[in-house]
Amino acid sequence: VLADFALRPTMAYSMIDQIGAELELADRKITVTRASGRVGGSPVQLNGWIDGSDWDELLWEFSAQGKRVPLVRTNDLILRSDVDLALKRATVEEVPTLSGELNFTQSTYLVEFDPMAPRVASGPSSQPPYFSITTPGIADWEFDVVGKGDSFFRVRSPYFRALVSANLALDGTFEKPEIIGALRVAEGDILFPSVRMELDSGSAFIEPTRPNEVQLDFSGIAQVSSYVITMEVEQTLDDPSVYFSSTPTLPNSEIVRLLATGGLSGGEVGAVGVYLGKGLLGVGAGGVDSSLADRLTFDVGEAGGRDGGNTFGVKYR
Question: How many C-alpha atoms does 149 have within 13 Å on its Cβ side?
Fold first, then answer.
């Protein structure tokens, strides 16, 4: 019987405490009759067995269940999930396999993203799924895990906000895992200096035929004065391409000027001041919960004034 054990937290893992278990050893077989603990404050239950009749060919079967378990916790990312996983090797011929489901729950990612930056960051330097377990004796174990979540992932920056859904499958071996599926934007917007552009569609996906690339397919639309501006993001996360177009047609330099100032005459610098203020004050970052600033929207030039100039509006949701 074990009671009140704990592990110290590390940079990679949350606090694991309140560890308790009842184990039974008989005929070289250990059976977990009851085991539980808290991972980052979330309860996790464990049960199973390990058979040591042949020390060269151990057999085992374990399962774990938990609610809102923090799988990843860093300074800028919290990924939580309901967990229902099993690790099994019931026969000598069987390859050890981690299988089951992850049902993602409320999670948050704080990201540095500026839509008016002169260049777009190239993204992670490694290939999906960005991890590999090379420990001898474990590297050839296999994955068979499905991960799903509906509007669970909140992405926040001073200039970008989105609510994301996921449908992913993790296969392959521990050394060479493969993740297939997509992250889709349920709702989101990009805050340019003069206007808020709504994302009408967006996804980042990995196809079986291109398992080492995250492909992008995003589009947004906004109205600035009498112009309708559309944006499309394509290609891959490592090498994205961003395209702007307008109706009526404008050259790209004037589209950027519209997004930056709200007009084409050069006198609309106030919008840039409001935009920079959003970044300094953290408008839209909002932490885990929506703040007062998260509900404020500044719109410049959505409609023409009676004197032909741009209007300035503030909206509180």
Answer: 26
Q: How many CA atoms lie within 13 A of 40 on its CB side?
A: 18
Tokens describing residue 256: 């950027």
- The Cα-based distances of 35 to 7, 54, 67, 87, 237 in angstroms read 15, 25, 15, 15, 42
Q: Enter the tokens of residue 276.
A: 């920079």
Reference 87, options 76, 77, 78, 99; nearest CA is 99
Q: Element (H or E) spanning 240, and its range? A: strand 240-247
H and E: helices and strands count for the chain? 2, 16
CA 60 to CA 118: how far, in whole Å? 55
Question: How far is CA 139 from each of CA 126, 134, 192, rounded to the nearest angstrom?
Answer: 19, 5, 46
**Which position has the token pair 């600033």?**
293
Residues 224, 302 contacting (CB under 8 angstroms): yes
Instruction: Tokens for 262, please give them.
Output: 């709200």
Residues of the chain with pLDDT under 50: 118-125, 269-290, 302
Rounded to whole angstroms, the Cα distance separating 163 from 153 reads 6
**What is the identity of the amino acid at 99?**
S
* Rounded Cα gap, residues 176 and 199, in angstroms: 34
Q: For residue range 294-307, what is the model confidence (pLDDT) as tens digits?
A: 566 655 554 555 55
Q: Which two tokens stand for residue 178?
A: 């493969």
| Full-model pTM | 0.76
Contact (CB, 8 A) for 85 and 63: yes
Nearest-5° Cα angle at 258, 255 to 261: 145
User: How far is 190 from 220, CA to CA, in rounded Å?
Assistant: 8
